Amino acid sequence: MHVPSAALAPPSSDDATPSTPSPTAPVRPRQRTTSGLQAVLSDPNLAHSLQSVQSPHTDVAAQTARARFEHAVRRYYYQLTVGCADTHCTNKLCRANPACQASAARCRGRSRRPARRAPGGHFFCPRCPDDPDVAIPGPAEALQNAHVHPSLASVTESASESGGDESTATMAAAPQPAVVLKYITKDLWDQSVARLAAAPALTLTDEAGTEEVAAPAPTAEDGGMTEEAHKFLLDSIKHVFSTSSALNHSFKVPSSITENVHPSRLDLPSIRETYAAILAREPRARYRRCLTDAIELLLAHLDLNLGSAVESKSKLAQFLILLENPLLDDTAFHESLFRPLLQLITRLSPRAKAVLVQWWAAFPEPQFRALVERLQGYLSAHYHAGPTRPDDAVVAVVRVLGLCYSANEVGNVVPYAAFYNATLCAQMNFKDEYRAWRKLLDKSSRAPGLAALSSPIATAATATATASSSTPDQFSYFSYPFLLDPVAKARIMHIDAMVQMAQEYEDACVSQALVVHTQKMLLADAARTAQLRGRRAAHDDPAACKRSFFQVLLAQLMDPLYGLFTYDESTRYSWLNAASLEPVRQFELVGIVLGLALYNGVIVDVRFPRLLYRRLLGDAPTLDDVKSTWPDLGRGLQQLLDWADGDVEDVFMRSFDVSVAAYGAVRTVELKPGGSNIAVTNANRHEYVALYVDWVCRKSVESQFRALRRGFLKVCGGYALGLCRPEEVEQLLCGQEVDLDMSALEKGCGYDDGYHAAHPTIRDFWSIVHAMDLPHKKMLLEFVTASDRVPLKGLGSLTFVVQRNGPDCDRLPTALTCFGRLLLPEYAGKEKLKRFLVTAIENAKGFGLV
């Protein structure tokens, strides 16, 4: 015998309170029934996912209600199948009564109606045991997942009247439990919805089982479901999203799947799909309100019990699930949902945060990018520049972004530029923020300068860890430099340089002689500046003059014939000449020039490998640096590490030394003492590669690099440089290597001496320019501005002027690179203009071809 199907129907308000039978004509109370919901509850594929709960927010209450219900079912089952063995028993629901079989058949045929009281108002036979030792056949889930039907309220009342135990009688006053899903997955949700959507219209039945009134069929506004179906889904949402244990077990990948599984074992794509399915159900407002109410209750519970709620790694999955909620993109839910969630994440222990970082590092690129954009959206919506410090929520979202940045550094999921916040960079008061940042650094006793600079990754992690224990008054956005783009960091470096100059001037004032000397220098410099300003033409561009100066100077210093640097034709990189005969102070001069170019915002045409900028910031060299700087050498070392066909000693025949050729002579440098006599084997090849990388990147050019770095830091050696990544330092110094947007250049272009945007020659000129390939576009840009690199603010920020240089003639176009001017004659036709322009840019040298 199985549990009556009536016990598996969800309770409704219509049968919450059983009607009292009339003494003249006892009528069974009306009850709504849906075959679709019954199909869900009896579906063997869904049975293991169902659960009876007393309250969606109290697991203890659910367990207590289930225990009372199991006791009542066992007693009722014993009475129907065994009975009291008294042939004179008057209880028609007892097996001993001759009418029991007819009663049982009637119950099975009318399983969707509440059971009827036995004569005398007793459900249970007083002669049957109160706690029978009986096992109900069938799957255990059939009993565990069943809920207490409203008729059991009468059962407990009858038991009380018949002298039943108190634990059973107390169930009459308890709130009626409801059947819900224990957890939610995309497949489980779809199966439940499909079953419920197939339900027929509701009907009202009487005691005889005849249909009296048919309820209206579900409409599109109702989502095509009955009220009982909606109640089942809403109760399931309420239970899962308001209970940590239920949410942590949701969206899990089956244990049978072991490949390509996220470390959290969450089915990440299905989380967003399920959110979308829930929020798309009609009536949408009802489902949205249910979801938000449940999450609010969960967040409130976590706020009070955060330590115990996340005491293990498996309990952190709920934070990943909650952060995928698309409602977080709506500012209407920022205060109620997003804010408390962010604050909870920042309150997690360092160990829990490390787990989240590990999980985020394994995110697919689309979902990780969406997470970062969601956090950035909250920051942009709530950031306000002003003298007051940010509130707790803004501090919290910045710290969570710090965790995501650390995860991105581990997993390299998205480009680092995805963390730039345009609103922050556009609205921030950099001077006020710089003061707050310096105070924060002084409080933390951080040593000035770059002597102890760590990598940007470590700097961000340290800043995040330090800020996580600080208050908003001790918070600075500069402690999270990944939020700031290179343009913003250039402004910070200028402010930092001004502060350094002021400090240097204050130090010089200690000596009166230096003070007098400084005043004379300043007066003379002011006089010269005034004269220059008086002579300067209205169209002069001082930035272009500085750019030309640095380009010419650095072109001489970087020339391999000068002996300071070597040049690799395959990679087009310049590197320090380890065998240079020039004194090291020449390398210091190069460092000073590079620092001055960076300080003045001048884009220079130098090509150093990323290794140089990493070492400027204090990063240790790696094999990847060798691969990018010397590709052939990097491939050889990697092949040595990957070799699996025998011992590398027999194949590569290498020892722990390096042969260096310089000026026609070859010398041997040992990587370790006695290295020439130590063969490279499978056992020590990793040590060999590490020593080789250290030698080629650091030791071989140690004196030259120290001098260059010392000169560079004399100009740019403040706090601000530590905010930059190696890639950003390269962009600040050399510009961006991106596709040239000539449309932006055209929009920002100026015209002179009769030319204008609608002039036929200008139209032909831009038509020719847009049709050029990338090399010729770079030639044109270098021809006019002395550099083919794109400034950080784009080509629209360049000074680019096309000036009429007389009528049609056979002269080639010329350029004034100091002023960014192209002198273009008014040629007779487009073909002649194209031929002369291409000839000029292809043969330009120095400052131009006249």
UniProtKB/TrEMBL annotation:
Protein's cellular compartments: Cytoplasm
Pfam families linked to this entry: AZUL, HECT
Cited SUPFAM superfamilies: Hect, E3 ligase catalytic domain
Reaction catalysed by this enzyme: S-ubiquitinyl-[E2 ubiquitin-conjugating enzyme]-L-cysteine + [acceptor protein]-L-lysine = [E2 ubiquitin-conjugating enzyme]-L-cysteine + N(6)-ubiquitinyl-[acceptor protein]-L-lysine
Gene Ontology biological process terms, A to Z: protein polyubiquitination
Stored SMART domains: HECTc
CDD domains: HECTc
Region (Disordered): 1-35, 146-171
Ranges of Polar residues composition bias in the record: 153-170
EC number: 2.3.2.26
Record: active site: C818
CC annotations in GO: cytoplasm
Name assigned to this protein: HECT-type E3 ubiquitin transferase
Keyword flag Electron transport: no
Entry-linked PANTHER family: HECT-TYPE E3 UBIQUITIN TRANSFERASE, UBIQUITIN-PROTEIN LIGASE E3C
Cross-referenced InterPro entries: AZUL, AZUL_sf, E3A/B/C-like, HECT_dom, Hect_E3_ubiquitin_ligase
Segments of skewed composition (Low complexity): 1-19
Species assigned in the record: Allomyces macrogynus (strain ATCC 38327)
Gene Ontology molecular function: ubiquitin protein ligase activity
Major place of residence: cytoplasm
